[in-house]
Structures are given as structure tokens and as C-alpha cells.
Specification:
Elements (H helix, E strand, L loop, with lengths): L1 H10 L1 H25 L4 H17 L5 E3 L2 E3 L6 E2 L7 H13 L4 H32 L4 H32 L2
Antiparallel strand pairs: 1-2, 2-3
Helix pairs in contact: 2-4, 3-5, 4-5, 4-6, 5-6
């Protein structure tokens, strides 16, 4: 039995290394975020609220932004909390990219646009939720908690897939 475990570990060394590094980077980023950023992210929350407020105005939904709050005349106030600045999808994405066996160059090529794209998706998500908040308040909670959480996971997976197939595998050819 001991031989089987060693053989299994040996045959799956790369996968186990990826999983170990993924857990390490996820934990590291979470500790960094909780220790140094979580009480100092007000700038990101305000910037996100301003961008979402702007997008909502562009599509005809009147609002005004004060600090990290988006106020509507006919709907509940929207507070952009730290969980709404896209930090968690970025932590997962960055951890996967850093754990994946690729060159530093490929990792940078994946990280920079990936983080920007995930933040843009977060702005779209919050804008969409603003529309739901104004027109279909009864759907807000289910859309916020279930639809968009699953959608963010799907986007992280798609970005990782695109990075691996278009950048990492392209370079190794």
C-alpha cells in the first residue's frame, strides 16, 4: 500500500504541486488583504461607486454617489462594500496564474489584463445590479447572491482557460 501512495504521488506530482501552490497563494493573498488592505480599501470602494454611478447615468438611471454609496430616487441605496470591489475573484485568478507552471513573462501577461478584465466585469456586475435594484427589487437578492457569484466564477475559469490556451501553450510550441 505504501508503494501505491508513492507511485500515485509521483505520477501526479505536477497536479499536487499546482494544488499546493494554489492554496499557498490564496492563503497568502487573503492574509495580505485581511492584514493590510481591508480597512484601507475606501479609495477602491469610492472609485468603484463613482464608475458604477457613471454607468448607470449613461443608461438613464438617475443616481448620485457619495463616498461608497449610490443613491437612487426610487430604490434602495446601494453601498459598495469591500466584497464588491472584485478582490475575491482577483485573488482566485492571481493564485491560479501564479500556481500554474508557466514562465514569469506568461504569468505577467496573464495577470495584468486578467485583473483589469475582472475589475471591468465587477463594474458591469454592479451596474446590472443597479438596474435590478431600480426596476426589479424583488429579484435583487437572488441576482446578487446566486447569478452573479456563479457568473464571476465562470469568468475566472474562462480567463484562465484563455490564458493557458492562448499564451502559455502558444509559447511552448
Amino acid at each position: 500500500m505504501n508503494h501505491n501512495i508513492k507511485t500515485t504521488i509521483s505520477e501526479n506530482r505536477e497536479i499536487l504541486k499546482f494544488i499546493a501552490l494554489l492554496l499557498f497563494f490564496t492563503l497568502l493573498f487573503h492574509i495580505i488583504y485581511q492584514s493590510f488592505i481591508i480597512n484601507k480599501e475606501h479609495f477602491l470602494r469610492e472609485t468603484t461607486a463613482m464608475l458604477v454611478g457613471f454607468c448607470l447615468n449613461v443608461i438613464g438611471i438617475e443616481n448620485f454617489v457619495k463616498d461608497a454609496d449610490i443613491f437612487f430616487s426610487s430604490a434602495k441605496t446601494f453601498n459598495v462594500i469591500y466584497g464588491c470591489i472584485g478582490i475575491y475573484p482577483v485573488i482566485v485568478f492571481a493564485s491560479c496564474v501564479l500556481a500554474y507552471p508557466a514562465t514569469i513573462r506568461d504569468k505577467i501577461i496573464g495577470l495584468i489584463p486578467g485583473i483589469i478584465i475582472l475589475y471591468a466585469i465587477e463594474i458591469i456586475r454592479l451596474t446590472f445590479l443597479g438596474v435590478i435594484n431600480v426596476y426589479w427589487q424583488n429579484l435583487f437578492e437572488i441576482t446578487h447572491v446566486y447569478f452573479w457569484q456563479a457568473t464571476l466564477i465562470i469568468f475566472v475559469i474562462i480567463l484562465l482557460f484563455l490564458w493557458i490556451t492562448k499564451v502559455v501553450e502558444n509559447e511552448s510550441e
